Amino acid sequence: MSASALLSAADIGMIRGERLLFRGVSLTLGPGEAILLRGQNGAGKTTLLRILAGLTQPETGSVVRAAPHHWIAHRDGLKPHETPRGHLTLWARAWGQSTTAIEPLLDKMELSRPSDVPAKHLSAGQRQRTALARLHLENRPVWLLDEPLTALDGHGKTLLLDMIAAHREQGGGIIAAIHGDAEFEIDMQVDI
Amino acid sequence: MTPAPILSAFRQALGEAWAGGAGALLPVGFFAGAAVLVPLGVGTDPETLRTIGPGILWVSLALSSLVTLERIFQADAEDGSLDLWLQTGAPAASIAAAKTLAHWLTAGLPLALLSPFLLLMFQAQIGGALLENMLYYAFGGLAFYFWGGVSAALAATVRRGGLLISLIALPLYVPTAIFGALAMGDGPSSAAAPLFLAASTLFALAVAPFAMGAALRLAAD
Amino acid sequence: MFSWFANPHRFLMLSSWLAPLFYAAAALLIAWGLWQGLWMVPKDDYQGGDIMRVMFIHVPAAWLAMASYLGMAVMSFVWFIWRHEVADIAAKAIAPLGATWTALCLATGAIWGKPTWGTWWQWDDARMMSVLFMFFLFLGYIALRAAMDTRQKAARAGAILAMVGALNVPLIKFSVDLFTSLHQDASVITTEGPKMAAVYLWPLLISSVGHSLLFAALVMTLMRAEIWTRRAAQSRARLMTGD
User: Fold this and answer.
1) More confident residue, B92 or C204
2) To 5 degrees, how large is the angle CA B77–CA B80–CA B86?
3) Predicted-complex ipTM score
4) Are A95 and B84 an interchain contact pair (Cβ–Cβ within 8 Å)?
């Protein structure tokens, strides 16, 4: 592992029940890099990403998280009654950040119009953009993204790809589990 | 570590309790309904009702806590917010304690506040004892919610976990129910019972959060 | 030392001769205890006459109800701290057997209670109430494990619950004692006290050792079954994935 690595994992193996999901997975994420996790449905991409985030304990191997990370998953963390503005205010406070950046952020994520609509009435794309907005509440070098493109329309995708590009230019790293095409430049692909 | 995540978890849980629209009305309605069923079953003899009234309310309080606990951690596990809370850097035990405390404030404390009125229906006399009992219901209810929270956290990923939560929690409710009922009686242990009730609630507050934290980490795994 | 036993392979080897030995010894001891208890010792009219002979099952069952919960909690703790797989397998095996002996204790207690106390269920008896709550703790543990999707999760959830339960047992016991002390005026006849003649002690002790050996042998059998089940599932999973 190089001194500047943001996150590295060595020899990760995982068993669910009696089923071996994967083993011997090693990766190192450097500044500005993007790592893609590929595999069929049920192969364990999400599980690997959860291991990297520290949510799931691996059966073997270890993960070194040298920098704070953001977590964006298929389960977006929005409560049915929560509005985009409410959601971002909650997490800004939970992370000890100022809430002044929320207005421009809603604007940037094109959530100004539905900013006070409860999540249960939002479209899948609007919910996903709300979750993605969390990435800008606090500056954290590592982004862990689970299927970030799925719910987004063409415009939303462009928005996210721009965010990813800007993040990498600033020296941030990305690890994403994506079923289809990545649609952004990657440094390493992990097949499981 | 800053307290910000813990405060936010507390605030979110408070908000969630009211977000359904009914707020505290639902548990209060269940509590009163369960208690009011009893005279229909055992008869309306005033002396009997006065004797069993405080105990009936303990049972109703235990049942209400079980019914409302099912969703507190299950919803978080399903919508992904549990994953976010576990990554805030705050100990899982503190997040769990904050959420359970908020849950007790919205769903448990109102029941204790209602208890004097129900006890009057059970033929109790107006007096200081009503307020004293209210205090016992409030404090004992806190222990119910914390032990119930442990079972709710353990069953957070179990579909239709309500029955399981009840089965796990009931033996843990025994000391509180006994101390609470003794504190309200006039037997030889009644003088010491409030102290035991307080001690068992403090024990719950000290131990349950760690079990809940471990159970929540498991639910996210 | 525990790590030495924690190897499933070593456990299989050890239990392959220890379990049959325990079964045989248990059969002898329980048979001798019952023969002594049912035919040889004189009946005690103060304890309800011939019905007191149920004591030679009731007392070993009561001992095992307590000991098995303690054993399960200790195994859970060992698994939680050191993650020795055999400890979890042991905890899982103890649960249904502990529940069975606890139920046996309650049933024989009720059978004994009817002629002596005049009731099947004595709410004022602290021991009956404590054992009943122990039974609920076992049921909750079994149900929780069964509800989890994978054995790893069942192990973790079970360990958390068993430890929480074990911490609560003294408090439950204390509260139940306090509860029942209120009603001491009821004509409760206790098994303890000066009436316990020495003539009963040996058959009781032998029966208790016999039941404990039977319990231990059954635990080993269930553990062996669990280890083989896991190995079979692992082989099948390996075949399915072609790995």
Assistant:
1) B92
2) 80
3) 0.94
4) no
